Structures are given as C-alpha cells and as structure tokens.
Amino acid sequence: MSVLYVVATPIGNLGDITARALEVLRGADVIAAEDTRVTQGLLAHFAIGAKLVSVREHNERAASESILRLLGEGKAVALVSDAGTPPLLRLEPIRLLAGSFTAGRLSCPSLCAQRPMRITGGKL
C-alpha cells in the first residue's frame, strides 16, 4: 500500500520504541533516514531488513522527489530521524508531506491525535 509513515524512534533507550513503530518499520518497503548509520543500528537490533535510504539536508530535494516516486509506485515508506520524531519543518520535508497528504497516503502513527499536527507545524 502506498503510504508515507512518519515514525518516531527512541531517544537513547531502544526499549522505548512502540510496538506500532516496529510494525511500521517491519512493513515498510523503504526506510528514509536522517543518518543511515544510526538507523542501521536500530534496524539491526530489531532484525528489520528494509531498504534504507538517506534523507539529509544536502539531498532533501532529490530524496523527496525519489520518495514521491516510490509512493507513486505503491511503495510504503517510513521516514525516521536519528532519535525522536523526524524534523519536518524544513521546506523539502514539508513538500514531501504535502505531496503525500494530497495523494491521501500520509500516516503519523502516534499515541495521540495532536502529535501529527505538531510534527507538521500545522502546515498541512
């Protein structure tokens, strides 16, 4: 199913990850990470073998376009940061989220309904 998941990762203690976050990461076709080296440690710890791609400040535009193409192909993409919720208030991630949102394929698995609005800064 074509969807962009915005997934919060543990800050410091890997035991703090939620069951829903693990479910999403295990089911994702691609995981887009701020720092693939850090995320690889998390994925290895939980034996998750999804394809990992880098989404950093220097490649945000190209990475955003690539992720939108993957979504157009029906892929499930999980967006993660090194720790906590991905920082989405910069231009390109907002463009990515807006493109996913208008296509009806954005999901922010969270413990409360207010978090997705905080994540996007109310921009959607």
What does this protein look like?
Helix 3 (60-72) packs parallel to helix 4. The mean pLDDT is 77. The chain has a single domain (3-119), classed as 3-Layer(aba) Sandwich (Cobalt-precorrin-4 Transmethylase, domain 1). The relative contact order is 0.24. It is of the alpha/beta class and 124 residues long. The protein is built from five helices and five strands, in the order E-H-E-H-E-H-E-H-E-H.
Kindly list the characteristics that best describe this protein.
15% strand; 124 residues; 5 helices; single chain; 40% helix; Cobalt-precorrin-4 Transmethylase, domain 1; alpha/beta
Ranges where pLDDT stays below 50 over 5 or more residues in a row are: none
Count of DSSP-assigned helices: 5
Report Rg: 13 Å
CATH superfamily: Tetrapyrrole methylase, N-terminal domain
The dominant shape is globular
Question: Largest sheet, if any?
Answer: 5 strands, parallel
Overall number of domains: 1
Q: Helices and strands: which structural class? A: alpha/beta
Name the average pLDDT. Answer: 77
Helix content: 40-55%
**Spatial ordering of strands, largest sheet:** 3-2-4-1-5
Could you give the distance between the termini? 21 Å
Order of helical and strand elements: EHEHEHEHEH
CATH architecture: 3-Layer(aba) Sandwich
Tell me the CATH topology: Cobalt-precorrin-4 Transmethylase, domain 1
Total beta strand runs: 5
Give the CATH class: Alpha Beta
Amount of beta strand = 15-25%
Helix and strand layout, with pairings?
Blueprint: E1 3-6, H1 19-27, E2 30-33, H2 36-45, E3 51-54, H3 60-72, E4 76-80, H4 91-102, E5 106-107, H5 114-119
Parallel strand pairs: 1-4, 1-5, 2-3, 2-4
Helix pairs in contact: 3-4
